[in-house]
Amino acid sequence: MYDFIIIGAGIIGTNIARELSKYPFKTLVLEKENDVANHQTVANSAIVHAGHDPIEGSLKAILCVKGNALYEELEHELSIPLLRTGAFVLAHNDEEEQMLRDLKVRADHNGVPTSTILDGHTARKLEPNMSDSVTQVLSLPTTKVTYPWEVAFACLENAMKNGVEFRKNQEVTNIKWVKDRFVVETNFKETIETKHVISASGIFSDQIAHMLEKDVPYTIKPRRGEYYVLDRRVKGYLERVLYPLPTSKGKGVLLVPQVHGNILVGPTSVDQLDKVRTTTTPDGMKQIKEDAARLAKNIPFDKTIRTFAGIRAGSTYKDFFIQESKEFKGFYHVAGIDSPGLTAAPAIARYLVDEVIQPNVEKKENFDPFREEKIFFYTLSEDEQKKKIKENPLYGNIVCKCEKITEVEIMEAIHSPLGSDTIKGIKKRARAGSGLCQGGYCENTVLKIIARETGQSLDQINYYGKDTPILLKETKVK
User: Which of 16, 75, 350, 413 could bridge to 430 as Cys pair (CB 3.0-4.6 Å)?
Assistant: First the structure.
């Protein structure tokens, strides 16, 4: 029997797993998808927000500011990528300038450090491509950008190193309370017993809760957001995150420099009933361009390499819902984690464990908080590259020309502790297929490497989820 089962391996579930791995608990993470971080974590703006926007006194405000600071700790311990961009919130007239001042008061109340208001002329010296119509900005120097699924990978790898178990393709189909324990049923007709259950199920949180509770105190309201991704050749166009003033629908369309040099533009904010539909739309793409034009001029949309959409777990509760069930002690809700959920994730995990669960046991003395740094081959010096190639000639085989990813790095992505045997899984881990051609050049080679390394036939290799094969049948026969 387990002490804890965590349902969901997104940015929240993986941070919770790592936090629980500091204790001598037997913990299991269940993920219904074929990979870690498949939903909200893989499709968002990647911003570690400063904390200027959430309502004063809310969990969102408190845990956002704490989470922002904790990313410095995660960078040190887990070698996660962290780009310290800073951010500007933009105002264009007297009315918006007053809103900007009100936002500054909120930022100060929330404990955001070193926020200041700058006039438009001063701000444009720092960001020359910012719109000429901007009259003032709120500067937020502690804003950062990360690589969200890499954070999830790092947290779960470290948790597994410290004893946590992980199973993918395990969809929870029912939860029962039997005497003194929870019995969790999965799609494999398996029953797993546990003393406690933590639901970190994102957009499916209310569905999981209804398996046990009659009166779930929130309903998840899916909200779709669409984005443009600009090629990393635009690096230098913008140094900071640019925000409009926030509205009731969220932070609005943003311009966001990314860790690897790309720029994200978006998102839209469209409520929908469907929890899995992530299609982009002509109207959404048009809206992004119109809204982004208020932030910056000459945005290089001609360098677009892809568009995508993601679903956010909006909630009727209006704040993060991090509470123990009133009906079933030992069942913990971590629900309604929309923006700034990525930022708050490490603080959410600590809050849940320290303040809500309150373990009555001592932490492990042998907990190891560190993960080895991942170094891309193309970042090495010429001498270091030659040395690597001498050790393993496959370092000399560049598979992904756009991102300069070697065959060895593809192999490592397959065989790592959280390795993958899917095309998109390799893209998430090694960036093969993330560049200008979006896999047009390298996908065929990646497919063959996966097949070779896993002993599968080519038509068994999935694109991402279960039953998504790239090839259906052979069309040429010798």
Answer: 413
